[in-house]
Amino acid sequence: MLEKLDEIRSNAIDELSNLQSLNELEDWRIRYLGKKSTLTQILRGLAALPLEQRKAVGASANEVKALLEAALGQKRAALKEEELARSIERGRIDVTLPGRPLALGRLHPTTQMVREICDIFISMGFQVIEGPEVEWDYYNFEALNIPPDHPARDMFSTFWIDTESGERPMLLRTHTSPMQIRVMERTRPPVRVVVPGKVYRYEATDATHESMFYQIEGLAVDENITLADLKGTLYEFAKRLFGAERRVRFRCDYFPFVEPGVEMAIDCFVCGGSGCRLCGNTGWIEILGAGMVHPDVLRRVNYDPDVYTGFAFGLGVERIPMLRYGIEDIRLFYSNDLRFLRQF
């Protein structure tokens, strides 16, 4: 029995010195100190031995057990320290290495264009304001010289909103022009504002039409404002936005809330005016509509048209980057496709 205990001690110590992990150490503990180990069975069987043999075997077995338990504790501490050292080494930061690049967000191309356009007009003395997207029929149509029976209403495919019986009709604004009226109702001239915002049209979507898009409206009212002031303002805007070499053309157009009305175009920056697919072989690209504020619109806000005159203009924001970057489908702006958005 004593020889068996010496063999157990010798084998256990030899194996212990070769262990490399805490999992292996746990297997060793179960094998030599567990409830089913040979050493534990010897200790449990001491009662069956003669008294003199029991004393010798018991003392030797307890000595081996104490030795193995002490060796177990030392080995466990050593393995934990080695594991900690390896973990620290794996997590060590080499401060000489370049940092990992962080993914940066960016502004939507429409937002970028809104800010760029607004900054141009701010530098010319205009103030940026915003207004409600759910609008009264009065502000969206009637106050802008478009009464209920006016044929110009057919120009706007409108999202109407159900209201209680007797309520004034409401709608999702079809343009940002209602803010002309709202601003003039609460402000005395001089007035110089630009109004960026979303507008809504009840129409089928295709490469050049969306049911929701951005517009920027501009308004200036004061004494002695003339069509020359409108042309000079928009000429300066086109030069800053599209380049100093751009040529600008104004032609007559119709809008119910201005008289006279004009449309502004720039010479095609792809073909230089000689004609191409982008400009429809005309050499010119229409940018916006504008005109002198109609006297009836001024009267509705208690501005005397004999004293005050003004001009207004409006442009579709998405049209500008479509022209500038050759984008052929307006739906790309609202598809949330990162392959498209990351280009701007």
Structural summary, described in words:
- This protein has 344 residues and is α+β, with helices and mostly antiparallel strands.
- The chain is built from eleven helices and ten strands.
- The strands form two sheets. A seven-stranded mixed β-sheet has the order 1-5-6-10-9-8-7, sandwiched between helices.
- Strand 7 and strand 8 form a beta hairpin.
- Helix 2 runs antiparallel to helix 4.
- The mean pLDDT is 85.
Features:
single chain; 344 residues; alpha+beta; BirA Bifunctional Protein, domain 2; 2 domains; seven-stranded mixed beta sheet; three-stranded antiparallel beta sheet; 11 helices; rod-shaped
